[in-house]
Amino acid sequence: MIAVTNGASPKVIMVVEDDSLLRESLSLMLEGFGYRVVDAENAEEAIRLAVRSVNPVDLVFADVDIPGTLDGNGLAAWFTRYAPHVPVILTSGKVSAAPSGRCFLAKPVDDMELHRRIDELLGPWGGAPYR
After folding, report:
1. Rg, the chain, Cα only
2. CATH number for position 109
3. How far apart are CA 52 and CA 6, in angstroms?
4. pTM of this prediction?
5. 131 within some domain
6. pLDDT tens-digit series, residues 80-105
7. Domain count of the chain?
């Protein structure tokens, strides 16, 4: 699929998920929508990638329940503090884990709902139009 980006480079989505199969599945789905994807297994790796990346991250999609010293909420707080222009969407299989005041999608994540939510946060030229 060719990304529709109004002449600009495709937006970069960071997927932070400790389940490697789910992380790969989400990455392939988002690439199919026309986004560039950077993935990380935990918050610490995500922060390292965000700080060192040549291509800036446009949006983070992170599981709330990731191992390490920071969970998804901690990662969202880090982005709020150090990169407030980068929206964060959190996800979890436990709806009770939904943080107040943050964008949240319950697992299993519907691909069209995720695409719509990304469009809302990045604008209509964030990736290929959903159908």
Report:
1. 14
2. 3.40.50.2300
3. 27
4. 0.86
5. no
6. 999 999 999 999 988 776 677 789 99
7. 1
